[in-house]
Design goal:
Elements: H1 10-20, E1 27-29, H2 31-35, H3 41-48, E2 52-55, H4 65-71
Parallel strand pairs: 1-2
Amino acid sequence: MHPHNLVFSPVTLKRLVDEGGLTNVGAEMDPSHLMWQGMDIVASIKWLGPLVFHAAPKQPSWPRASSCARWTN
């Protein structure tokens, strides 16, 4: 889920699956994409539940709040 794609959040993914009646579509969860959108990563994973097909962790540690500000510039 990336903000430049049609499906950019847990809500838009769920809507695609529900309205399309799809059974083979899910999320590759990349926390970095949700992080810089200001989303709660753990809440998003819990809300999507079985729609999380794969995870792609990239960040070895959580950044401090001060370093997050640099990502948005």
